[in-house]
Design a protein that fits this description.
Layout lengths: L1 E5 L3 H12 L6 E5 L2 H11 L3 E4 L2 E2 L2 E2 H10 L5 E6 L4 H10 L3 E4 H19 L8 H13 L1 H9 L3 E6 L4 E4 L1 H7 L3 H4 L10 H17 L3 E9 L2 E13 L5 E10 L1 H19 L3 E6 L4 E4 L1 H7 L3 H4 L4 H5 L6 H12 L4 E8 L5 E12 L5 E10 L1 H47 L5 H26 L8 E3 L1 H16 L3 E7 L6 E3 L1 H17 L5 E12 L1 H4 L9 E10 L6 H4 L19 H11 L3 E6 L5 E8 L3 H4 L17 E5 L3 H11 L5 E5 L2 H10 L6 E5 L7 H11 L4 E6 L8 E3 L4 H13 L1
Parallel strand pairs: 1-2, 1-3, 3-6, 6-7, 19-21, 25-26, 25-27, 27-28, 28-29
Antiparallel strand pairs: 4-5, 8-9, 8-12, 10-11, 11-12, 13-14, 13-17, 15-16, 16-17, 18-20, 21-22, 22-24, 23-24
Helix pairs in contact: 2-3, 5-6, 16-17, 16-24, 17-22, 18-19, 19-22
């Protein structure tokens, strides 16, 4: 065995070389006086044992110990120092020393230890000399080697006799108490601990000695206000005859371990409780762990997911190969991938998630795992799509409304003039048929503008309390003729549906338009189902529809067909005016936009579910009417037959042709009519006109002062004058005439207002 002695004292080095060279089994002894020399000697001499001092010029023994610890060879290190302070003992052991001895008190023990080690390394033919045999016997008798091993294990160790008095403790245990081991031997726990704790320790000792069994505990203590955990093993201590003569205990401070375990537990609980789905996979993408949110999002349990690749679980097929290629290239390069992905649940339904996938590296920098955090954004994306659709429909609605308003003015003049001509021309005159054709075309155009007004929610409706079952039942025979024999009409009407407030005629138009569309979608025949039922929408279900339905009680009208269905691009545009998938001359593109407008103007909601070759279902939600409201009866004034007029009427209309038409209708009926193009002009006429004015017939939308502002001014200054509004826009005003109107409708409404 080769030994290296490292000490700055030449006297000590010479003494150690002399003593060690005399030991059997020690082949060679090298020396070094400095830490730097020691490091070189370790590399060149390649010793088996290093006998080392702590304090040396130009470095310390701790540095040598750290260098030895970095060496791949196993070299026994023994510290022999004049400074056996506890902090140096602890520092030496932490740095890798195997033994620690005091030069003044334990010099011979160190030499005996090396002698024993040298004997142990000798070959089978080696005969121990008298010195080695004497040292070996001493070690066996005194237990120096065993005591040394106990002394410098990183555990706290003590031995007590049957009276629970200490007969041995190692330095680590004494260091915790802040005293030397020799001050502990012979004492009991009452000398060092509070009586309650000492009594507890004594009870544990007695339990082990009486039962003869090992006792293992994890115990918690509070020291200086801080919580500490200790792992304790107490075993019976026996003599050579097997009699229990005491207790041997090993203590390990596991406070940091318990804190780490608690932190890991909290982290695990946090990951499990996280609202976002979390997946941990290995470097090949195989799932190793998922949290509860993943189960809620996908429908797969942890047992079903672990051991499988996510692509086998949730891949939807909605993304291209290039998409997944870029995904894997990013994370395998060690970068975090972030983006939105469409995946599929266990039940087959699709969902959208905002996902971040981060690589996890080990100490050497290699990627070992991936962590994916997934937020379900399905509802958010649906709401965003609804908002964009609502904005688009609102913009189209404003355009349609403006077009309808202008056309209503023109059509009022065209149809009104045609009526006047027809009244003055004999049916035998060829012109009569031409004017009649103009009138028919004008009426058809008026119907189109009403559809535009319906879409833009500006159509005048006569809403009243009604039951959808009554409307559907009354239309069955008409619908069967409309659909033809090759389409089976099925009506499923729930008897407990509540009433709604709507215009019956407009609801009939909604059903008719949907039925016509369904017929065209089933050219080879099929089934059309019309269903009514009472439904309640809660917060969760309301956002599942393409158009968010507020929570509440509704009557649902469903119209379903078994036709060719629609793709996603078509579904996104079906409610837009003039959008149609039918061939030229087969559709105006206003049917579904009219449905949309009527439903919205009735404070309802409509949405569609359709897939190619899977048919189409339209669902309409109309708010239920409260029982007390449904019990009421709509009372409307009876129509008044046109009579001879003798009153004075102020006509306010910014379109000259319409003013001319109204005068040509009213004056022959006996009314005195004078007109104004604006509200301001009307006020000036009223100031100059001294005779009574009985009625102001005013357009609602005019440049400058609107018809409503004119009416409010009259209500304050000339309350005796009645006001009748006319407009192509819907109005809640009682005295209202909807454009385009006929001559008869104008005369009848004027008379009604004057006589009311």
């Amino acid at each position: 065995m080769k030994v290296l002695v490292v000490d700055d004292s030449a006297i000590v080095r010479e003494r150690l070389v002399e003593v060690l060279s005399a030991l059997q089994g020690v082949e060679h002894v090298d020396t070094a006086a400095r830490a730097s020399e020691a490091r070189l000697a370790i590399q060149s001499a390649r010793p088996d044992v290093v006998l080392l001092d702590i304090h040396m010029p130009g470095g310390s023994g701790i540095e040598v110990l750290e260098a030895l610890r970095a060496d791949n060879r196993r070299i026994m290190t023994i510290v022999l120092t004049n400074d056996p302070a506890p902090q140096w003992r602890a520092a030496s052991l932490r740095a890798g020393a195997d033994f620690f001895f005091d030069k003044s008190a334990e010099f011979q023990q160190a030499i005996d230890l090396i002698a024993h080690l040298a004997l142990g390394r000798a070959g089978p033919g080696f005969q121990a000399g008298p010195v080695a045999r004497e040292n070996d016997e001493a070690l066996r008798q005194n237990g120096i080697l065993n005591r040394s091993l106990l002394e410098y294990l990183p555990l706290r160790i003590f031995v007590k006799d049957r009276q629970s008095r200490y007969v041995f403790c190692n330095s680590s245990y004494a260091l915790d108490l802040g005293i030397e081991p020799r001050q502990i031997v012979g004492e009991d726990d009452f000398a060092f601990f509070p009586s309650e704790l000492a009594e507890r320790y004594r009870a544990d000792d007695r339990s082990v000695m009486s039962d003869g069994k090992i006792k293992i505990l994890d115990e918690r203590y509070t020291v200086a206000g801080e919580e500490q955990w200790v792992h304790t093993i107490r075993v019976p201590y026996r003599n050579e005859q097997g009699e229990i003569i005491g207790v041997l205990a090993l203590f390990e401070d596991i406070t940091e371990r318990r804190r780490t375990e608690e932190l890991l537990r909290l982290e695990g609980a946090a990951l499990h409780a996280a609202a976002d789905a979390i997946i941990i996979t290995d470097s090949a993408g195989v799932v190793e762990w998922v949290n509860q949110a993943f189960t809620q999002l996908t429908g797969y349990t942890a047992e079903e997911a672990i051991g499988r690749n996510p692509r086998d679980l949730v891949k939807s097929g909605k993304h291209s190969q290039a998409f997944y290629k870029e995904f894997w290239e990013t994370i395998l390069a060690g970068r975090t991938w972030h983006g939105e992905m469409i995946n599929r649940r266990k039940d087959g339904s699709l969902y959208s998630e905002d996902q971040a996938v981060t690589p996890i590296r080990n100490a050497s920098g290699a990627i070992t795992h991936f962590v994916a955090i997934k937020e379900d954004v399905t509802e958010r994306l649906q709401l965003e799509a609804q908002y964009r659709q609502a904005q688009r429909m609102e913009s189209v609605g404003l355009l349609a409304s403006g077009i309808a308003h202008d056309f209503n003015n023109l059509l009022t003049v065209i149809n009104g003039m045609a009526e006047l001509v027809l009244e003055q021309v004999s049916k035998d005159v060829p012109m009569y048929a031409d004017v009649q054709e103009i009138h028919r075309a004008g009426l058809r155009a008026a119907a189109l503008t009403r559809q535009l007004s319906a879409f833009s929610r500006q159509q005048a409706l006569e809403r009243r309390v009604m039951n959808l079952n009554t409307v559907v039942a009354g239309m069955e025979s008409l619908l069967r003729r409309l659909l033809g024999e090759d389409i089976d009409l099925v009506a499923v009407l729930s008897p407990d549906v509540c009433s709604v407030r709507a215009d019956p005629g407009q609801i009939e138009q909604v059903i008719t338009n949907l039925a016509v569309n369904a017929r065209d979608a089933m050219p080879q025949g099929g089934r059309l189902t019309i269903e009514t039922q009472k439904v309640t929408i809660d917060n969760g279900r309301g956002h599942q529809h393409p158009e968010a339905v507020p929570p509440g009680s509704y009557v649902q009208l469903s119209v379903s067909d078994s036709g060719i269905g629609m793709d996603e691009a078509t579904r996104a545009r079906i409610f837009e005016p003039f959008f149609t998938t039918k061939g030229p001359g087969k559709g105006t593109g206003l049917g579904l936009s009219t449905v949309y407008g009527i439903v919205k103007q009735s404070q309802g909601f409509v949405w569609v579910r359709s897939e190619v070759e899977q048919g189409t279902t339209f669902k309409i939600y109309l708010p239920q009417v409260q029982a007390i409201e449904a019990a009421g009866i709509d009372r409307r004034e009876p129509a008044v037959a046109p009579g001879s007029g003798k009153e004075t009427i102020l006509l306010v209309e910014d379109t000259a042709a319409l003013r001319n038409l109204a005068k040509r209708v009213l004056e022959p009926a006996g009314y005195t009519v004078f007109s104004a193009a604006t509200g301001e002009e009307a006020l000036r006429l009223l100031e100059r006109h001294r005779a009574p004015v009985h009625l102001v017939l005013s357009d609602v939308m005019m440049p400058g002062m609107s018809g409503q502002e004119l009416g409010e001014w009259l209500a304050q200054t000339r309350p005796e004058i009645k006001v009748l509004y006319m407009s192509g826009y819907a109005s809640d005003t009682i005295a209202f005439l909807n454009k385009p109107f006929t001559a008869a409708a104008l005369l009848r409404r004027v008379r009604e207002v004057l006589d009311s």
